[in-house]
Amino acid sequence: MTQKQQIENHWELSGKRLVVLGGSSGIGLAVAQQAVAQGATAIIASSNADRVKQAVATIDGKVEGHALDLSNERDIQEFFQKIGDFDHLVFTAGDTLQLNELAATDLTKARHAFELRYWAALAAVKYASPHIRKDGSIVLTTGVAGQRPHKGWTVVASVCGSIEAVTRALAVELAPIRVNAVCPGVVRTNLWQGMNADAREHLYESVGKSLLVGRVGEACEIARAYLFLMQEGYGTGQTVVLDGGAVLV
User: Does any domain span residue 11?
Assistant: First the structure.
């Protein structure tokens, strides 16, 4: 087989096995759905067992669901020991955003944001990477707050900036495993479930009007960036921004 043929085969997700942490809803679920539609096997894991079961029911194809406490390092270690070798890791787990001006920031809650979005991601990479096959990849998730923060976004911007930095560092340390990140802007997902329905729709409308594309994002279109980073085979240490033009306005 020529090098070109090997590269072309690498682009295919058919027959590949991927793990999506945070895959029971939103962007993670959309990634799993699209990957399975291309012939991959998806293993989705999230903390809520009922939501995992519901997510699995939405996917027509090869899929496994697992309840996993991402705040528990030992549980993460045991999870990856149990599932064995695979090709791609996707980390999209996140809780409701904490947006407050610094004076009103609860630092205990701020630390919790780092626990799930940064430390859990790092633990996942630590225990997953020995099981990732040759030519495999890792795709983490950051956010536009790290590149274009607003007043009251100090904690969120700090988390996002940390993920971008660790993406570059891991790409160097884990090579030839490729490590990249996706940086979404405001997307219609349950990330905003802490708001009441009217306030949430007002957010989507007001933010959408301010963007160059005139609307907020949808999980299904953000998911395509994760699939691209799994398949393209050449980029590493990169952050792909999909924000509707938020960093430009």
Answer: yes
Q: Is 248 within a domain?
A: no
Please indicate, yes or no, if residue 249 is contained in any of the structural domains: no
Radius of gyration of the chain (CA): 18
The per-residue pLDDT for range 22-69, each reduced to its tens digit, is 999 999 999 999 999 999 999 999 999 999 999 999 999 999 999 999
CATH of the domain at 135: 3.40.50.720
Bridging pattern class, strands 17-21 and 86-91: parallel
Cα separation, 209 vs 230, in Å, equals 32
- The answer for residues whose C-beta is within 8 angstroms of residue 100's C-beta and 6 or more apart is 106, 152, 155
Parent domain of 211:
3-242
Closest CA to 116 of 84, 159, 80, 86: 159
Please tell me the total count of domains within the chain: 1
Q: Exposed e or buried b for every residue in 152-163, given b needs 16+ CB within 10 A?
A: ebbbbbbbbbbb
Give me the residue label for tokens 């679920």: 29
The four Cα atoms 44, 45, 50, 55 give a dihedral, to 10 degrees, of -20
Does any domain span residue 247?
no
Instruction: Output phi, psi for 148, to 5 deg.
Output: -140, 70
Give pTM, 2 decimals: 0.92
